[in-house]
Design goal:
- The protein has 200 residues and is of the alpha/beta class.
- It has one domain: Rossmann fold, CATH 3.40.50.
- The chain has 6 helices and 7 strands.
- Strands 3-2-1-4-5-7-6 form a 7-stranded mixed β-sheet, with helices on both faces.
- α3 links the parallel β1 and β2.
- 34% of the residues are buried.
- The model has no long low-confidence stretch (mean pLDDT 97).
- The structure holds S-adenosylmethionine.
- S-adenosylmethionine (SAM) binds next to β2.
Length: 200
């Protein structure tokens, strides 16, 4: 398995433009989710972990969400985002390892998952669940997309299915929604689950 837990692995992918996962647009189901949020959500503390080029962060910012944190441990996409959004608050651009983020320092109302879970070493999935629950406020939510398929390779993305995800997430989250996504990007049609999970 390639060393997906090292920032250098991902940084190199950005430097060589080997970023096949990058949709160069806000993910349609996440845009639809964001668009139906009430005005009162505009000040929610939102985490976008493993955000990469962070089209979702850009979209949230453009829609007037004031407290969005972009997290990635590869510096290249963060620098690029800062160039595209020069007025985005720099303290909300966090270049750090998700697994090392301190829940004492960071607490969020909700987090947006988009091809981050599938990028980590599958052996760290329970660690992801525990860390994510710790970074969310009581009753905080994890919203987003997970792959609903397996992959025949030993590099990211790493797939999964409802049975596995339920078994892992139910230790820390109540599952409000985990169902096939009906409005995926055409390239991911039929291969994604939309999830909305609440910290227990
Ligand atoms: C497959 S890419 C997805 C990027 C973005 N979410 C998208 O959909 O375009 C995975 C991202 O997660 C980041 N990443 C992987 N492991 C990480 C970790 N432990 N902490 C922070 N970022 C991480 C990588 O640098 C990369 O930008």
């Amino acid at each position: 398995m390639e060393n997906v837990s090292q920032a250098e692995f991902w940084q190199q992918r950005y430097e060589t433009d080997s970023i096949g996962w990058d949709m160069r647009q806000v993910s349609p189901p996440l845009k639809a989710y964001i668009d139906q949020l009430p005005e009162s959500a505009k000040h929610d503390a939102i985490l976008v972990p493993g955000a990469g080029n962070a089209y979702e962060v850009g979209y949230l910012y453009e829609q007037g969400f004031t407290n969005v944190t972009l997290l990635d441990f590869a510096p290249a996409p963060i620098a690029d985002f800062a160039r595209r959004y020069p007025n985005f608050p720099s303290e909300h651009l966090v270049c750090a390892d998700f697994f090392e983020l301190s829940p004492e320092r960071y607490q969020f109302d909700w987090a947006l998952e988009q091809t981050f879970f599938c990028a980590i070493n599958p052996q760290r999935r329970d660690e992801y669940v525990q860390q994510m629950a710790g970074l969310l406020k009581p009753k905080g939510k994890l919203v987003g997309l997970l792959f609903d398929r397996g992959f025949d390779h030993t590099h990211p993305p790493f797939g999964g299915d409802v049975e596995e995800y339920k078994q892992r997430f139910e230790s820390h989250f109540a599952i409000e929604i985990m169902e096939p996504c009906y409005n995926s990007h055409p390239a991911r049609q039929g291969s994604e689950l939309f999830i909305k999970l609440q910290v227990k």
